[in-house]
Amino acid sequence: MKRVLDTKLMASTQPFKAIISHTVLAELEKRLQLPPFKPPKVESAEDFPSYDTETGQLHEAGYDAYITGLCFITMADYLGSFLSPPQTHVAVQSDVISPFFNKLFLMRITDIPYLNLDGPDLLPKRDNVLHVTFPKEWKASDLYQLFSAFGKIQVSWIDDTSAFVTLTQTDQVQIAVNISRFAESYCVQTYAEYIAKKERQGLAKRKRTDDGWMDFERKRPKTQYTYVAQNSRYHYSSSVDQPFSKKRSINAVVEEADSVNPEESEGQEGEDASSPTAIDSANSSKHKIDTDQAECSNSISSEEFELVHAW
Q1: 51-78 pLDDT tens trace
Q2: Does the pTM of the predicted model rise above 0.85?
Q3: Does the pLDDT value for residue 251 go beyond 50?
Q4: DSSP tag of 196
Q5: What does pLDDT average to over the chain?
Q6: Are 293 and 253 in contact (CB under 8 A)?
Q7: Are the beta carbons of 153 and 144 closer than 8 angstroms?
Q8: Distances from the Cα of 9 to the Cαs of 16, 26, 65, 137, in angstroms?
């Protein structure tokens, strides 16, 4: 697996967090020029003098990549001072670098410091977080005023009528919830209560969906198709909850009797319709129809199948 290193994450993590106050790339590069850090000495190749940290070309892709590399080397060498014995230069394969592999910094999320590409993410407890619903007209100042008695807070908006409010101390959460019990214009609940309510709503929604689908399956009519081999035609019928049965179609025999074979037609062109031969043939056909109809009423050897529409 490829290994990714995020200099912003490194600068936001101990032991750098206590020393570096700004992790923006330009500010980070300047801070790493000062003690206790020792930046590497870099000489540009001949005919390539453009990338000079004194002048800077920020937001140019090549230059940003260049100073990002300088920042990493400087921070890696600083970690070498914690080894025994201390090392001036630290290779990327060193054990002091491995904790930073495949972790990406997350902006504006205080309790999840990074996204882990190589394993499960951290699961914060969030015992000091409240879920607040309020009128659409409220602004951030209204929330700060509402929780002013609880010291410094952090507001994370969900939508126009709800937000997460993070308190400094966990023991103040239940106090804030109890105070808001009788409020009419807003509602406060703990983060755990909010998550539990969402899970219940999700289960109820899935259950209603399943029940609705089952009702639909039970009530919808079944569509039946009968395949008749004699004339290769399909007969369509719609029935509700009819048991599967194998019956030959009487219509197929009638259609077969009514249809005239081209070879037989050529042989009968010279015969008169009223001749004894024609009458005997007609009687024979009628007898065949009656006989087949009687057989069809009790036959169970036809080719019939049932097809239900899939919606």
Answers
A1: 888 777 888 999 999 999 999 999 999 9
A2: no
A3: no
A4: H
A5: 75
A6: yes
A7: yes
A8: 10, 15, 16, 37
